[in-house]
Request: fold
Amino acid sequence: MKRILPVEELARDERFVRVRMEERFNDPRAAAGGTAARVGKGFRPEARNAPDRARALMHGIFVGEIQALEGAGRTVWDFEVGKGKEEVPFELKLDMARQCWDESRHCEISVKLGDWMGTEIGEFAESTFLYEAACNPDPVLRLTGVNRALEGLAIDVFNTMKDFGAGSGDPVLEFCEDWMLADEVTHVKMGSDWLRRITEKDPERRANALEFQRVVDKLFSGGGFRGEGDDSPIKLARRFRELAGFTTEEVDDIAADSVESRREAEARIAAARAGT
Amino acid sequence: MAKVDVTPQEFVMVTFDAARIAELAAEVADKVGLPADTVLQLEVDEQEPLGRTTVLSIDPISIKVEGGAFEDAKRPRQMSDRGIVDVLGRLLFRIKDRLDPAFGSPPDDGELTMQQQTAWDAYAVGRAERAGLPTQKARRLYHFRNRHGFSDVADAVFARLWDADSLTWAEIETACTETASAREAVA
Reply:
C-alpha cells in the first residue's frame, strides 16, 4: 500500500465537492472588503443567520473528522517503528490507532447531528487542509500541525458550539459538542506529549515543529475568526488547551497572533475600500 | 409570466448569469401565483458572499439580495439554481401574503421578531414545496426550533404552519403565542 497518500486520492462519493484553500484565499470579494467586512462578528444564537452559520460550521467539522480519521490512519501506516527521524515509537502508533476509533465515532456523531440540524451530507464544500497537514513527511511536524494546531482549533470550535447549543436551547448540539470536546483534549494532549518526548534531545527539531504549528495556527486565526475578543466568532478555549498540554505562553501567542491577523484583515479592508 | 429586471446585468466577481436568474425568478413568480403582469426588480450585491435578503418594496416588487443567497455552497462564486428558487420562493410567498388584504397587516420586515419571521417562513416554504419548488424542510424545522424552542409544542406548531394553505397574520401571531407559552412553562 502506498505511503503518504496524496490528498487527490482520498475516497469520496459524488456528494462531496472539494474546494482548494487557494480558491478561498483568492476570492476577489475578500480583497474588495466583502467577505472580511463582517469577520469579527460574534457567533451568537440571537443573530438572525445563526442556525445556518451553525449548520455550515458543523458540516466543516464533519468533513474535518473524516480527514482526521484518514490522517491518524495514515500516520499508523506511513512510518516504520524506530528511532530515526522518519520513524516513530510503537506507542505513538497505538495512540494514533486509538484516535482513529475516536474520529470514526465523531464521524457518526456528526452525521446524526447533521440530520438533526437539517444538513445534507456534502451540502457545503469540503476544504482538505486538515488532511494536507497530515501529509507532512516528518511525523513530529505532522503531529504538531494536526494534533496540536488543528485539533487545538477543534477544541476552540467545540467549546464555542457547546456554549452556542446551551444558549439556543439545543440539547443535541450541546451534548454532541461536549462529548467530542473531551476526545479532542485527549488528541491534543497526545500531540503535546509526543512532541516533547520525541524532540527531548533535539531542540532544533522541536523549534521547527513549533514553528510549523504556529504557521498553521495563524492561518486559522484568519481575520480574528478565532481569538479572545468578545466579537471573535470562535473563542480560544484557554482552560481546555491547558488541560491538553499547552503552556500559558503558547496560548498567549495564539491569542496575540489572532489579534495581529485581525489587524491585517482590517487594514486590507480599509485599503480595498480606499481603492488602493 | 412576470417581467424580471436583474441588476447588474454583468457580474465580475462571481460567475452569475443575469438572464438565468431572471428566467428562474419568473418561473417562481408564476408558481407562487403572482399575476402574469407582475414586475420584479432584483438587485444582486455580488461583492457580499453572505446571504441576507431585503424586500425594498412590494408594489412594484423590489428585492435586494447579497450574492451568497444565490451562490452554490459547494462551489465558491458559482450560481445555484436551487438556491435562487429557494430564496425567491420564500420571499415571493411572503410578498403575495402582504399584497392580499385578507391576510392582515404584518409589521414591516425589519420589525418582525425572529419568532414571527421563522413562523411566517415555515408557512411560506411549506406552500413553496407544494408548488413544486425544492425546499429543505429539516433545515426550516431546525430554524424554527432555534427560535420557538426545542419542544413537542414547537414541532406541532411548525407542522401546522408548514401544512397550511390559507392563514392570516393573526393566525401566525397565535402560533407564536402558543410556542411562547410552552417556552415560559419550561423556564
